[in-house]
């Protein structure tokens, strides 16, 4: 079972993002503060869980968390400031919107920019080690997936309901056939032969 948090004597939030490698849609981040005695046997990195497990966990996390926050940064902002900066900015937005100010921030990965007056620690593969990061990964993933399913209705030919904007063969074939949409990240390499793509 994952550890609840890194610092046991501090009010700590875990934060993570989803959608960094996608060709379309937002990058989505979440921040979660869990109760000190929170336990869950299946909570883990969202990427290794089934969809049904993620949805069950999302409901549990939202009911049991001391507080949580989710933020989307759209593809235009990703293009403007790059995906790394957009990911970090989305995490900052989440922390800012928490109803309780954390005393410490535990970040998944190895890159982060200091948040004003709150110390942080980056943890590689943190979503497989700490429950507060894993909980944030679940919320980021499920909220982003829901967003992509909504915009799938507008552009069903890209099948975002299934691929969620990731660079699958099906998604790239649709880009090749239909071009790009207002949701695509123009700064990304959408096709191997990028110069042949009409933007």
TrEMBL record:
Cofactor(s) listed: Mn(2+); Mg(2+)
InterPro entries: RNase_HII, RNase_HII/HIII, RNase_HII/HIII_dom, RNaseH-like_sf, RNaseH_sf
RNase H type-2 domain boundaries: 10-199
Binding note for cofactor: Manganese or magnesium. Binds 1 divalent metal ion per monomer in the absence of substrate. May bind a second metal ion after substrate binding.
PROSITE patterns (UniProt xref): RNASE_H_2 (PS51975)
EC number, as in UniProt: 3.1.26.4
Keywords from the UniProt entry: Cytoplasm, Endonuclease, Hydrolase, Manganese, Metal-binding, Nuclease
Binding site for a divalent metal cation: 16-17, 108
PANTHER family on file: RIBONUCLEASE H2 SUBUNIT A (PTHR10954), RIBONUCLEASE HII (PTHR10954:SF18)
Name recorded for this polypeptide: Ribonuclease HII
Organism listed in the record: Antarcticibacterium flavum
């Amino acid at each position: 079972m994952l550890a609840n948090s890194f610092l046991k004597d501090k009010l700590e939030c875990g934060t993570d993002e989803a959608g960094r490698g996608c060709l379309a849609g937002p990058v989505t981040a979440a921040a979660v503060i869990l109760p000190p005695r929170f336990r869950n046997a299946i909570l883990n990195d969202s990427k290794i869980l089934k969809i049904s497990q993620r949805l069950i966990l999302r409901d549990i996390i939202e009911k049991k968390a001391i507080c949580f926050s989710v933020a989307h940064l759209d593809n235009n902002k990703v293009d403007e400031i790059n995906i790394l900066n957009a990911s970090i900015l989305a995490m900052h937005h989440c922390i800012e919107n928490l109803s309780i100010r954390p005393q410490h921030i535990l970040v998944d990965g190895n890159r982060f920019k200091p948040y004003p007056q709150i110390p942080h620690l980056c943890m590689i593969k943190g979503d497989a080690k700490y429950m507060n990061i894993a909980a944030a990964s679940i919320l980021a993933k499920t909220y982003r997936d829901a967003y992509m399913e909504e915009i799938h209705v507008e552009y069903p030919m890209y099948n975002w309901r299934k691929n969620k904007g990731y660079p699958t063969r099906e998604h790239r074939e649709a880009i090749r056939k239909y071009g790009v949409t207002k949701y695509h990240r123009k700064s990304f390499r959408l096709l191997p032969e990028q110069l042949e793509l009409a933007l």
